[in-house]
Design a protein that fits this description.
Structural class: alpha/beta
Largest sheet: 8 strands, parallel
């Protein structure tokens, strides 16, 4: 089937949904070209089908393709930010990393090396997980490319700064403790957003403060509002290179049931998107969207939410890479 694509700004864009139905053809993210169909990509969307680090419900290894399927509904113009990201820069789907599901240490090394390879020419990554274990190697690669520790915003119901599970150092509940220990995070500019639910004890919070994390709970978002939260986050981050990690369970299960460790009382998809949009102009160097587990999803609620989160992250990157006069929308 001939690929009839939207083009603009000299970039190869998504398949034209006015000429080829959205439900037809292969599902790349937002129906964008594959990486091998373009000379190079300014932003690469890559999947990591890995969930060997989960502590409760498995299935996030299928999350990347679930997000891709839901992203068929995305369009080329983002009116919330008044940006056509696929015109501003070349965005492409880099497919999936092939990682070992039986060896977490080897998988982490593979993700780190693949992330370095994909960014060798200056491209930025938006990664679709997979479980949150993969954030550690992605942060390692981001810090190496930045040449310094990076700021981080971590959207999640959970802290993910625990020490071990069953003696294992590398799981989806430990990546940010390891990242602090390795010195790849700027501890003056790291925050959790949307955390909630029971903990193992007060020491969890004490450790978190010791690591340097600020915490914006889901209750804070509700009581303070998006604008105040965004203002506090922007002040904390400043001009530092920023990595954004989004565990989809930051959303209330009403908005994202398809995840491995759901917690009641989460933020809405609208609140998450508005907070992300409030980061416009910050130096976003990398991002991930993880923990989408389609076996527990229904009506693609989680997949749709995750695809829009990834789309806004791509838009923020495109806007940062090419600050220009806002574009006008097209089909």
């Amino acid at each position: 089937m001939e690929e009839l694509r939207v083009t603009g700004g000299g970039r190869l864009g998504p398949i034209d949904s006015s000429r080829i139905p959205r439900y037809a053809g292969a599902a790349t993210f937002a129906r964008l070209p594959r990486l091998d169909q373009v000379d190079r990509a300014d932003i690469a969307v890559v999947g990591v089908p890995f969930d060997s680090g989960v502590s409760y419900r498995p299935g996030a290894r299928f999350g990347g393709n679930h997000i891709r399927e839901a992203s068929r509904l995305l369009r080329p113009y983002n009116p919330a930010l008044d940006v056509s990201p696929f015109e501003r820069v070349q965005v492409a789907d880099a497919g999936d990393m092939a990682v070992n599901p039986f060896n977490i240490n080897e998988a982490i090394e593979t993700v780190q090396q693949n992330a370095l390879d994909l960014t060798a020419d200056g491209a930025r990554l938006v990664t679709l997980g997979g479980d949150h274990t993969i954030a550690l190697p992605l942060l390692r690669a981001a810090a190496e490319r930045a040449g310094a520790p990076v700021a981080m915003l971590h959207f999640d119901a959970h802290l993910d700064t625990w020490d071990t599970y069953f003696g294992a150092e590398y799981t989806h509940g430990t990546p940010f403790r390891r990242a602090v220990e390795e010195g790849i995070l700027d501890t003056e500019a790291i925050s959790h957003v949307g955390t909630r639910g029971p903990l193992y004890g007060v020491r969890d919070l004490e450790d978190d403060r010791r690591f340097g994390f600020g915490i914006v709970t889901s209750s804070d978002v509700y009581r303070q509002g998006v604008d105040e939260v965004v203002d506090k986050l922007r002040q904390r981050i400043g001009t530092r290179p920023l990595y954004v990690s989004v565990d989809i369970d930051v959303l209330d299960p009403a908005h994202a049931p398809g995840t491995g460790t759901p917690e009641a009382g989460g933020i809405t998809s609208r609140e998450l998107l508005e907070i992300l949009r409030g980061l416009r102009g910050l130096n976003l160097v990398g991002a991930d969207v993880v923990e989408v587990a389609p076996a527990y999803d229904h009506a693609e609620l989680t997949g749709v939410a995750a695809s829009h989160v990834a789309y806004d992250l791509v838009t923020l990157m495109a806007d940062t890479l090419t600050p220009a006069t806002p574009t006008t929308g097209e089909r």
